[in-house]
Amino acid sequence: MSRILVGGAGGAPSNNFIRSLRESNRTDYLIGTSCVPTDLFLADVDERHVVPPAVSAEYRSSTISLLQRTRPDFLHVQNDYEVRAVSRFRDEVAGLGVKTYLPDRETVEICIDKAKSYDVWQKSGVNVPKTFLLHNESDLKKAFEQLGDKIWIRAVEGAAGQGALPTDNFDFARIWIDRFNGWGNFTAAKLLTERTVTWLSLWYEGELVVAQTRKRHSWNFGSRTLSGVTGITGVGETCSDSIVDQAALDSIYAIDKKPHGIFGVDMTYDHDGHPNTTEINIGRFFTTHYFFTKAGLNLPEIYCNIALNNMFPTLERKINPLPDGLIWIRGMDVEPVLITRNELEATLGNKP
After folding, report:
1. Measuring CA to CA, which residue among 240, 206, 202, 3 is closest to residue 99?
2. Cα–Cα dist 154/133, whole Å
3. How many other C-beta atoms can be found within 10 angstroms of the C-beta atom of residue 80?
4. How far apart (Å, rounded) are the C-alpha atoms in residues 142 and 334?
5. How far apart are CA 305 and CA 309, in angstroms?
6. Which site among 7, 129, 189, 199 is 20 to 30 Å from 296 CA-CA?
7. Are β-strands 326-329 and 337-340 bridged in parallel, bridged antiparallel, or unpaired?
C-alpha cells in the first residue's frame, strides 16, 4: 500500500482521479488537500488537510510542512496553478522522499502560459489560430483588422474558459479586458468553430505509454456564459482520427523532445475542418478522465503503477485503445452515464 497525496480533493478533477484509484487494483492510502475546506468533505480520502491557494506565497512552505507530517510516497495535483507551483519546488519535494511524475520544468512553464505555447507552435509550423498578445488598445485594433469581424479573447493562464469572450465589438472587448485588468495577460485569436477534441496522453522519458482521444459534444451550463465555454463537459465521445493523432504529437514534440508525464492536447476545428491546437493541459488529467476509467482504460491506475511501482501496461494499441462511439453524459447532482452511440441513435429514433 502506498500513500498518495492528492491536491484539489473534493473538486471534480481530483475526485475523478480518486474514484479511478478506488476502482482500480491498487489499495492506496489517500491524503486529500484543498484550499476550500468544505470541498474536502466531498472527497473519498483517508485524511483531509486544508492548504493555502497555489498562487499564495504560503503555498510552498505549507505544502512542504504537510509533506513532512504526512509522509506520502507520491504527490499528484489536478489544477494548472498547483501543477506549476509544485513543479517549481519539485526538488524540495523529492528531497523529502516524495515522488512526482511531472513533465520538465520548462515544459510546464510554457504550457501553463498560452501565449508562450502559441509562440512555440507558431514558429514550429503547428496548426494554430493566429493570435495576438494584447498589451494595449492598439494591439486590440490590430487583432480586429487582421483576424476578422469576430474574434476570440481569453486569459493566457487558467482553465475552464477563463476570461473567454467571442465578440465583434471593439468597445465591448476593451471594457472586458479592463474589467479583468487583463492588458498583457489576454490574447485575441481567430475565431474557430465549436467543434473540439482532446488527445489525453501519458509519457515516460520520451516514450508514449498510452493516448486516448475524446470529442466534446456540449458544455454543461454553456448558455449561462458569454463564451459558451464552462470547462464542464456535458457530453463527450471516444473517437479516433490519424490527423488528430499527428497534430497532437506535433504539438507535444514542438515543446518537449522527450515528453514525460501527462499531456492533454486541446484542439478546436477551423472552418476548413482542420484541428488547431489551442493549449496543452500539462501534468494533470482533464476533468472527465473517469469516463475512460469506466470505459475500461484507468489512466490514474496506469500513472500510479508507473510512478510508484515501475509497472507498465500491456495494451493492444497505445493510441486510442478504447472503441469509438462510447458516450459519457454528465449533469449536476446525478451520476454520469456511459452509453454507446448506437443506444443514443436508437433513442433519437424514438422521437414522435
Report:
1. 3
2. 10
3. 23
4. 46
5. 5
6. 7
7. antiparallel
Rounded Cα distance, 230 and 323, in Å: 27
Within a domain: 110: no
319 and 206 in a common domain: yes
Determine the residue type at 34: S
From 192, 100, 174, 172, select the one nearest 138 (Cα to Cα): 174
d(CA 54, CA 134): 26
Angstrom distance (rounded) from CA 266 to CA 288 = 14
Compute the Cα dihedral for 315, 79, 3, 336 and give only its sign: negative
pTM, two decimal places: 0.91
pLDDT of 240 higher than 80:
yes
DSSP one-letter string for 183-206: TTTEEEEE---S-EEEEEEEEETT
CA distances from 182 to 53, 157, 174, 222 (A): 21, 11, 10, 23
Same domain flag for 186 and 158: yes
| Cβ within 8 Å of residue 15, ≥6 positions away | 9, 42, 43, 44
The Cα 178–Cα 181 span in angstroms is: 5
User: What are 90-135's pLDDT values in tens digits?
Assistant: 999 999 999 999 999 999 999 999 889 999 999 999 999 998 889 9
Domain count of the chain?
3
Give the whole-angstrom CA distance, residue 234 versus residue 218.
5
Percent of the chain with pLDDT over 70: 94
Over residues 25-76, the pLDDT tens digits come to 999 999 999 999 999 999 999 999 999 999 999 999 999 999 999 999 999 9
**Structural domain contains residue 109:** no
Dihedral sign (CA 26, 30, 35, 37): positive
In contact, 121 and 254? CB cutoff 8 Å: yes
Give the Cα separation of 223 and 216 in Å (integer).
Answer: 16
